[in-house]
C-alpha cells in the first residue's frame, strides 16, 4: 500500500513540476504494462489493463467475445460459460475476466518502468512544444547561453532556442550572458522535442516592438500598414489612425520620443522613419521618401511605377546612402520608384531623354514645372 501511495504522490509531483497531466501518465502506464504483459505472457493476447486513478491498483482483464461455438480460447467464450459469470451476457457481448497480477508484476516491472519513463519524457516534450507554439510570432526574452559556429543558443528556461546567422543583425556584437528580446519565428515539434527558431533580423521583430511600446497599436486605434527594414541600419514604418483625434506618428514617437527611443535602444541604434500611410497613392509615395522634401509625384498605376521630383538640394537625402532611402521606400509602398532632381528633370525633358506619360506629368510641364 505504501508503494502505491508513493507512486500516486510521485505522479502529483510530476504533474506539478513538469506540467505533465496524471491522465497522460496513467494512459502511458496502461499501454506500457499491456506491452510488457504481451511480451512476457504471450498466450494472453487479448488483455485489457486498468489502473485505478484513486488507489493506483492495477487490474488485468482478459477480454473475450461470447460465441455459440468457441474456436479460439484466447479471444472467445461460450454463452454457457459467460452466463456462469453473469446472466446479463448474450451472444456478441464482450466479457472481462479478471486475471491474477502477482507473477506479471514481478516479471514485467522493469520493462514497464523503462517504457513509462520514455512516455513521460515524450509527454513532457509535448507540453513544452504546446507552450512555445502559443508563443510563435510573439516576442520573448532570453539569455545567450553559448555561441557555437556563429549560432546563438538562447536559454528560455525549459529549453534552449537557436538564432542562426541569417536571423542575427550583422552589425550587432553578441556576448554570452547577455539578455535580449527576440521574435519567435518558428516552433517545430521534432523527435528530440520542441525546436524554437528566434530572430532579431525579421521585420516582424520591429512590428512587435512597436506593439509592446505603443498602446494605441495594441488596442487597434493605430495600425501598422507596412514595414520595410534593412536590419541593423534602418527601418521605415507606415502607420495610420482610425481615430481622427489621434496622431499616428505622434503616438508611435511618444512624449519626448520616449517610445521610439526605447525601440531604437533595443535595436542597438537602428534608425527608424515613421510615416503616415495614405490611401492617396501620390501622398503615400511622397511620405515614403521622408525625411526628404518632395515637389511632385507622377504615377503609372498599370505598371506600379512612380516618378518623384525632389529639390536638387534634397536629391541625395531622397536617394539615401547607397540608395537605401529610395530602396526602403520602394519596399514599403511596393512601387517602383524613379527619383529625379528638379533641374536634371527639366534638362532631360528639354533634351527628350524622358518619355512623358505618367499621370499628371504633362500638366506639370505645361505649368512651367510647377504644380
From TrEMBL:
CDD domains cross-referenced by the UniProt entry? KH-II_NusA_rpt1, KH-II_NusA_rpt2, S1_NusA
Q: Does the keyword Cell cycle apply?
A: no
- Residue intervals passing through the bilayer: none
Role, per record: Participates in both transcription termination and antitermination.
Protein family (similarity comment): Belongs to the NusA family.
Q: Where in the cell is it found?
A: Cytoplasm
- From the UniProt annotation, give the residues forming the signal peptide: none
Q: Which residues lie in coiled coils? A: none
Q: Which HAMAP family match?
A: NusA_B
Keyword field contains Membrane: no
**Assembly behavior:** Monomer. Binds directly to the core enzyme of the DNA-dependent RNA polymerase and to nascent RNA.
- Give the GO cellular component terms, alphabetically: cytosol
Q: Please give the biological process terms from Gene Ontology that the record holds.
A: DNA-templated transcription termination; transcription antitermination
Going by the UniProt record, its keywords in alphabetical order are:
Cytoplasm, Elongation factor, Protein biosynthesis, RNA-binding, Transcription, Transcription antitermination, Transcription regulation, Transcription termination
The UniProt entry, under PANTHER family, shows:
TRANSCRIPTION TERMINATION FACTOR NUSA, TRANSCRIPTION TERMINATION_ANTITERMINATION PROTEIN NUSA
Q: Which PROSITE patterns match?
A: KH_TYPE_1, S1
Identify the main location: cytoplasm
**GO MF entry, a single one:** translation elongation factor activity
Q: Which SUPFAM superfamilies match?
A: Nucleic acid-binding proteins, Prokaryotic type KH domain (KH-domain type II), Transcription factor NusA, N-terminal domain
Positions of the S1 motif domain: 137-201
| Top-rank lineage group of the source organism | Bacteria
Tell me what this protein is called: Transcription termination/antitermination protein NusA
Amino acid at each position: 500500500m505504501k508503494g502505491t501511495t508513493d507512486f500516486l504522490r510521485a505522479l502529483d509531483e510530476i504533474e506539478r513540476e513538469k506540467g505533465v497531466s496524471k491522465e497522460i501518465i496513467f494512459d502511458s502506464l496502461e499501454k506500457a504494462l499491456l506491452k510488457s504483459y504481451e511480451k512476457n505472457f504471450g498466450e494472453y493476447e487479448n488483455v485489457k489493463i486498468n489502473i485505478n486513478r484513486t488507489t493506483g491498483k492495477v487490474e488485468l482483464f482478459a477480454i473475450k467475445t461470447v460465441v455459440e461455438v468457441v474456436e479460439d480460447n484466447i479471444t472467445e467464450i461460450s454463452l454457457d460459460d459467460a452466463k456462469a459469470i453473469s446472466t446479463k451476457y448474450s451472444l456478441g457481448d464482450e466479457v472481462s475476466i479478471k486475471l491474477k497480477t502477482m507473477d506479471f508484476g514481478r516479471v514485467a516491472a522493469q520493462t514497464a518502468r523503462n517504457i513509462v519513463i520514455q512516455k513521460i519524457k515524450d509527454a513532457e516534450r509535448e507540453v513544452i512544444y504546446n507552450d512555445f507554439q502559443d508563443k510563435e510570432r510573439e516576442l520573448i526574452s532570453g539569455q545567450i547561453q553559448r555561441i557555437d559556429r556563429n549560432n546563438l543558443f538562447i536559454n528560455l528556461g525549459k529549453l534552449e532556442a537557436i538564432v542562426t546567422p541569417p536571423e542575427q543583425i550583422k552589425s550587432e556584437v553578441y556576448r554570452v550572458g547577455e539578455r535580449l528580446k527576440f521574435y519567435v519565428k518558428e516552433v517545430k515539434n521534432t523527435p528530440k522535442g520542441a525546436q524554437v527558431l528566434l530572430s532579431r533580423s525579421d521585420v516582424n521583430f520591429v512590428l512587435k516592438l512597436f506593439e509592446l511600446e505603443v498602446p494605441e497599436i495594441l488596442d487597434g486605434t493605430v495600425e501598422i500598414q507596412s514595414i520595410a527594414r534593412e536590419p541593423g541600419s534602418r527601418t521605415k514604418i507606415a502607420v495610420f489612425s482610425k481615430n481622427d483625434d489621434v496622431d499616428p506618428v505622434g503616438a508611435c514617437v511618444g512624449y519626448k520620443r520616449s517610445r521610439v527611443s526605447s525601440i531604437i535602444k533595443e535595436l542597438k541604434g537602428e534608425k527608424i522613419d515613421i510615416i503616415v500611410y495614405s490611401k492617396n497613392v501620390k501622398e503615400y509615395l511622397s511620405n515614403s521618401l521622408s525625411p526628404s522634401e518632395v515637389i511632385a509625384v507622377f504615377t503609372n498605376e498599370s505598371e506600379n511605377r512612380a516618378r518623384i521630383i525632389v529639390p536638387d538640394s534634397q536629391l541625395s537625402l531622397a536617394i539615401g546612402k547607397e540608395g537605401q532611402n529610395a530602396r526602403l521606400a520602394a519596399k514599403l509602398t511596393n512601387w517602383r520608384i524613379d527619383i529625379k532632381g528638379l533641374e536634371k528633370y527639366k534638362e532631360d525633358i528639354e533634351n527628350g531623354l524622358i518619355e512623358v506619360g505618367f499621370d499628371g506629368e504633362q500638366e506639370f510641364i505645361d505649368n512651367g514645372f510647377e504644380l
